[in-house]
Amino acid sequence: MGQSKELVLGIETSCDDTSVALVNEKGLVIAEKTITQHNIHAAFGGVFPELASRAHLHALKPALIEVLEKSKIDGKKLLAIGVTRGPGLIGSLLTGINYAAGLSIGWNVPLYGINHLRGHIRSVDLEEQRLETPAIILLVSGGHTLLAYHKNKNEIELLGSTIDDSVGEVYDKVARMMGLGFPGGPIIDKLAKQGEAIIQFPRPLLKDAYRFSFSGLKSAVARYIDSTPQAKQEDICASFVEACLEVLFIKSCRALTAYKPKSFAIVGGVAASMQVREKAQHIAQKYNVNLCLPPLKWSTDNGAMIALATWDYIHNNWQQKHNVETRLHIQEM
């Protein structure tokens, strides 16, 4: 067997990806398995919560078995287990939490309930230490859009978040309006590269310092599609993406100006967008900050980021480890 006491098992089931991973203290991923549900939810143009929960139930055991077999690790000798405890879809979360709790009891290994957003933030240090604090964090995913100030290794201050839809959610909904399939982000980005941003979609809450809003943009795109059936899909996508990026990066620049950080990190599923990454490079150069991006594989939901975040909880003794209830006591990100 390997050095199990030097490893943490991470379990992620916050939405529609079932993911299990073993990670050491430095962020090295020893083994990982992610099972997606895109084929299940494609017909709905978005995640169907009840079906997601059932799929997690079926996927957790084979994912865990594959990770343990790859690593040749005895689960009873792990240092700890970390499981996403929120935010996310309640049914999906409970499936993962209950499974992790069973492993914790059966293996007699401490269990930590991990904030999903802290997991995304820690994803930038998977495989390589990238983040240097203080840092500005832009978290953009299917469930969340926010700006945060990462003051030091443990302190994170929320600057502003979306008051309605997340940017990733709007990508998926616009894709559904246009009949492009699910998930919507990759196909919208691809079409946007082929089009021109000639449609003037609104930039909601642009003057507000750090809060976001994307429901108005979504509605504007829907009205345009209905009223202009002859419009090219490529131009709609290009114009929509430009509107999203302008809002995201104008607010990010405000934070970079105000806080003067060493690093600028972009995390979450939308961080996999090539348009986001290209724009971020220019912003980082302009403000002379270190740009921190997770590898594409670790941008979307995954168990490795939850495992690495678990090390923070261990080092800071953020949760007592006497029973499942106290181990899952809520901590801020």
Question: Spans with pLDDT under 50 lasting ≥5 residues?
Answer: 320-333
Give me the side-by-side strand order of the main sheet: 3-2-1-4-5
Fraction of residues in H or I helices: 40-55%
**Number of H- or I-type helical stretches:** 11
Supply Rg: 20 Å
Give a description of the structure.
The longest helix is centred in the C-terminal third of the chain and has 27 residues, at 233-259. Strand 6 and strand 7 (145-150) form a beta hairpin. The strands form two sheets. This protein has a five-stranded mixed sheet with strand order 3-2-1-4-5, sandwiched between helices. It has a five-stranded mixed sheet with strand order 8-7-6-9-10, sandwiched between helices. It has helices spanning 38-41, 49-71, 90-107, 116-122, 167-177, 185-194, 215-227, 233-259, 274-287, 303-316, 324-327; strands at residues 7-12, 18-24, 29-35, 80-86, 111-115, 135-140, 145-150, 156-161, 263-267, 290-292. The protein contains eleven helices and ten strands. The two termini are 33 Å apart. Helix 4 (116-122) packs across helix 10 (303-316) and helix 5 (167-177) packs parallel to helix 7 (215-227). The radius of gyration is 20 Å and the shape is globular. The chain has 333 residues and is α/β, with parallel strands linked by helices. Mean pLDDT is 92; it is low at 320-333.
